[in-house]
Each structure stands twice: as structure tokens, then as C-alpha cells.
Amino acid sequence: MTGASHRPQQHPSRVSPRFTLSSDTTRALMAIVAAFVLTGVIVALVPELLQGLRSVAGVVKFMIVFTVVLFTWYVALTLTAFARLGPDELTATIRDSEARRNPRLERWLAVDQLSWMLTGAGFALILVAVTVMHGSLRQDPWALAGAALLVVLSWTLMSVSGSVHLLRLDLHRDALGFPDEAPRTFMDYFYVSTTIFTTFAVSDVAATSPRSRRALTAMSISAMTFNTVVVALLVSGIITLVSG
Question: Where are the transmembrane segments (predicted)?
């Protein structure tokens, strides 16, 4: 045929949108179910946890176990969903999940990323404070070890959730100003989030929209509260145990 083009048919790049794990609601529900199941298994193996629910100390130990399992699962699911995706695949995944999500429902169910950041800080603050202030718990090395593990996981949860929140805000590349034009991956946003939760601010990335400025402000306040209050409580508890 005259003028016919025999160029090979162009196929779109292979993109794996990960429909299930890209949804904040789905990841939250999966983590909650897994936490209940695994905590039940742990209770079956260590029946003293269930028997101790009649006391404040027993309830705190049970909640530390449940929260550690919950946070571990949620962080693992989130990293599985986003951490290893290339720039194009990550953008396609976020765009697909944004099209299907219901932000109002997520806020009502407290499964959006800001809610998870507050959950991480809140659970750590309450459980660590009770552990340090309760007479028998602050003398229990296992309780303090569990509280220390909870603090580490809470900080990790806040950093990972902050990364996804910033990633969603910057879907159209109009929320954050990076110093270069290189394609962005999850680790770029994880860098911003972990820097804020470590030093309360980031110097080489600019907030270029009102929503991103509000998000970075909320993250900085959460980081300051967590690092100055929660960590200080845990350190005081460890010092009391060692010196006692």
C-alpha cells in the first residue's frame, strides 16, 4: 500500500498500578485485620497477656503488643505499595488511587495519611507516658523494651505516612520544589519526610502551594511534639530503670 507505514505498533510502558495496596483505606483495613489476628496468636502463645487485662499494667502491655503489630504491618504494606516503583509507575499508581479514593470517607474513618501520623504520635505518647508513670511498668524491662520498640515504629510510621501524603500533594509537580528536575521516586518524598521528623524542617525543598505549606507545618509540629515529649519520657523511664 502506497504511503503505508510499517512502523511497529507502540505499546504503552508496562505499568503495575497495584490497585489494592495503593488505596489508603485498603491498606489500613488489611493492617487492622492482620493486627487482630497476630495479636490473637501472640495471646494464645502468651496467655498471661489476656489474664493481665484486669489491671492497668496488663491493658498497657496488651495495647503495646497490638500497636506494634499494627504499625509494623501498615508500614510494610505501604512500602510494598510504593517504595520500589519507578517514577512513571509511581505516578500512574498514585493517579489511579487518587481517582478512586474518597478523602472525606478516609478522614471520617481516620485512615488518611495525616490521621496515621497523628495516630503514631498519639499512641506513642499515651502508652509511653503510662508505662513510665505506672509503678510496676517502669520497673519492668520488657514493658520498657516494648515501649522503646513502639517509639521506633511510631516514628517510622509517621515518616512513611508523611511521605505518601506529600507524594499525593505533589502528584502534578506543583506542591514541592526540588533542587533538580530529575524524575521523582518514593525515596525523594521519604527524604523530605524523614528530614522534617528528624530536624523539624527541610532546607533544600520548598513548599510551593498552600496545601503543601500546611502539610509541612503539621508535620513539623508533630515532629517537635514527638521528639521532645515522647522520646524524653522514654529516656526518663530507661534512666529510672537503670538507676533503680
Answer: 28-50, 62-83, 114-132, 144-169, 189-207, 219-242
How confident is the model over 43-91, as pLDDT tens digits? Answer: 888 887 777 778 888 899 999 999 999 999 999 999 999 999 999 999 9
Q: If you search the block for the grid coordinates 509507575, which residue do you land on? A: 89
| 204 and 191 Cβ atoms separated by less than 8 Å | no
Give the burial class of 14: count Cβ atoms within 10 A of its Cβ; 0-12 exposed, 13-18 middle, 19 or more buried.
Answer: exposed
d(CA 26, CA 73): 12
| pTM, two decimal places | 0.86
CA distances to 88, 152, 194, 197, 232 from 99, rounded to whole Å, are 17, 33, 27, 29, 42
Euclidean distance between CA atoms 242 and 233, whole angstroms: 14
Distances from the Cα of 203 to the Cα of 164, 175, 208, angstroms? 20, 15, 13
pLDDT bracket for residue 3 (50, 70, 90): very low
Q: Please tell me the distance from the alpha carbon of residue 244 to that of residue 238, in angstroms, as a whole number.
A: 10
pLDDT at 20 over 90: no
CA torsion sign, 100 to 90 to 194 to 214? Answer: negative
Give ∠ CA 221-169-23 in degrees, rounded to 5: 100
**Which amino acid is located at 217 in the chain?**
T
Flag the least confident range among 60-69, 101-110, 155-164. Answer: 101-110
Spatial CA neighbour of 244 closest among 108, 137, 93 = 137
